[in-house]
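This week, work through this protein record:
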Amino acid sequence: MKCSIAALALLALTACEAQPEGEPVARARIDGQQQAATPSSEPTPAETLASQVESACRSIIFEDAPLTHCLAVPARHRIDMALGSDGKPYRSLTDFAAASDGETIAFAMNAGMFDDEGEPIGYFVEDSERLHKLNTADGEGNFHMKPNGVFYGSGGEWVVRDTDSFLANVTERPEFGTQSGPMLVVDGKIHPEITQDGPSKLLRNAVGVDDEGRAHFVISNAPISFGKLARFYKDELEVKNALYLDGNVSLLWNPATERLDTGAPIGPIVVVRKKASE
């Protein structure tokens, strides 16, 4: 449904358009903290549901675009990569979810570009094992829209770097890593080849790490341009380095709200797990 002019003016970080199945429309700030409800307003059933579950993901609006923003915090989460089981790629979040304990997972998302068999086309590390080497080749497509980059980490230290910086500075193998492209934001500046709001609009997802070391995962709930997604990271999240993960195949699994996206086959998966309570 269409949003009224008054609703857009409020920018209450809630989408006027219908949200994906299972994803509550929650009034929340982009840092993931719950925002106080307006005393005079009656909570919707979706907002009531959101208040009863602990979700790392919130539905928000940026420049009229509905997004889902998922926040991973080192004190509460750890990050892994997953590709498949018994040598066979999962190819869907449905298959990954069937093989996983949803109680231990905050959320999962597709995490980088892949070939026809679902294998990564760039650097990929799972459980400290490098399954694919860094790709510095030139070529066509989004992956080769340089600078591209790597999202990687060990323990609670997570980083996004452009590929050249990764090659020059990272000497020890991380516990996890995935390469994709293009970079959306590089050292606080939007990728030089990304226009303000280009004609290419798809469901897209990305990741960026802020100065506090938190990883911000974003997936659009409607087609979005590179430029708008990059501005969200730069201007709203104030993330200095953000990496595009993919488009058109972008999917999210959020067990807390029972959102499990289906679609075209995927490859690498990033898994944000809950840390066990002390």
Q: What stands out?
A: The chain has two domains: 5-69, 72-274.
